[in-house]
Amino acid sequence: MLRLTVLIENSAPDHLIAEHGLSLHLDYEGHSYLLDSGTSGLFVRNADRLGIDLSRVERAALSHGHDDHAGGFSAFFRRNQQAPVLARPAAVQAYLEDTADPSRRPAGVDPDLFTKWAGRFDLADGPRLLAPGLHLIPDAVSHEQSLVAETAHGLVVMNSCCHAGAAHIVHEVRALFPTQKVHAIVGGFHLVGKTGMGSLGVAPEQVRLLSRRLAEELEVEQICTGHCTGHPAFDLMAQQEPGCLIPLHTGTCLSF
Ligand SMILES: [Zn+2]
Ligand SMILES: [Zn+2]
């Protein structure tokens, strides 16, 4: 049994805090895990309001080396004394690569995080296990990985921004687990434009194609998305595949 709670996302109901970023809490087979930490550490306050005790998290993972997913880990480490954070080694390098190109806003993680908290990060490329039934699967982007949970409904693939492409990621996961279907994908799809959540960064036909590929070709039953998907892309996907689209907001709870 997997129970997912969105601890922070770009939107939130009145009693919770929103920020650009994503953090998911997992209750999997009675154990507590964390995927990502948002940008600032505010997800800790949301966890308190939602009754989730972050000091009990046993292990954590970083989906990829971007600041809107790793920036809150200092706050997490102050709250939680034991959980290691499993990340790919290239997550440390993403910031340096970004700053090498002055035309790009650095999206990478502040390198101080990895030096100050070196003892809390466990860096390896994988595939490896976060726990029995809970897999970390690297994808084609050097610093990115999916968290894949085996559930009674099938696999639940969590990938916070899907920089490698949501359909590619699901396709590869299906190849690695040929006897199990992908029941759900959870995360942002990186379709937003440069001017904020109201903008679209790709051609509309690309969004329609992605939702068709996920729902029809790859037979994903639930597409749970928010964060860097953006509103126009979400609306296009809702028109294309209305039956299987679920929005992610701060505080959203999903059970599989
Ligand atoms: Zn990202
Ligand atoms: Zn992101």
Please supply descriptive tags for the structure shown above:
256 residues; alpha/beta; Metallo-beta-lactamase, Chain A; 7-stranded mixed beta sheet; 16 strands; globular; binds zinc ion; Metallo-B-lactamas
Describe the model.
By secondary structure, this protein is α/β, with parallel strands linked by helices. The protein has one domain (2-255): Metallo-beta-lactamase, Chain A (4-Layer Sandwich). Helix content is 27%, strand content 28%. It has eight helices and 16 strands. The chain has helices at residues 43-49, 67-70, 73-79, 90-99, 111-116, 166-176, 204-217, 231-240, and strands spanning 2-8, 23-28, 31-35, 59-61, 85-87, 121-123, 128-131, 134-138, 145-151, 154-158, 182-187, 192-193, 196-200, 222-225, 245-247, 253-255. Strand 12 and strand 13 form a beta hairpin. Helix 7 packs across helix 8. The longest helix has 14 residues, at 204-217. The N and C termini lie close together (6 Å). The model has no long low-confidence stretch (mean pLDDT 95). It binds zinc ion (2 copies).
Give me the strand/helix succession. EEEHEHHEHHEEEEEHEEEHEHEE
Q: Shape from CA axes? A: globular
What small molecules accompany the polymer chains?
zinc ion
Q: How do the strands of the widest beta sheet line up side by side? A: 6-5-4-3-2-1-16
Helix content: 25-40%
The CATH topology label is Metallo-beta-lactamase, Chain A
Overall residue-averaged pLDDT value: 95
Described by its quaternary structure, the protein is single chain
Indicate the CATH class: Alpha Beta
Strand content: 25-35%
Structural domains: how many: 1
Radius of gyration: 17 Å
**Intertermini distance:** 6 Å
Q: What is the CATH-assigned architecture?
A: 4-Layer Sandwich
What is the name of the CATH superfamily? Ribonuclease Z/Hydroxyacylglutathione hydrolase-like
SSE-based structural type: alpha/beta
Uncertain spans, ≥5 residues at pLDDT below 50? none
Characterize the main sheet. 7 strands, mixed
| Helical run tally | 8
Give me the count of strands. Answer: 16
Organism: Pseudoflavonifractor hominis
Protein name: MBL fold metallo-hydrolase
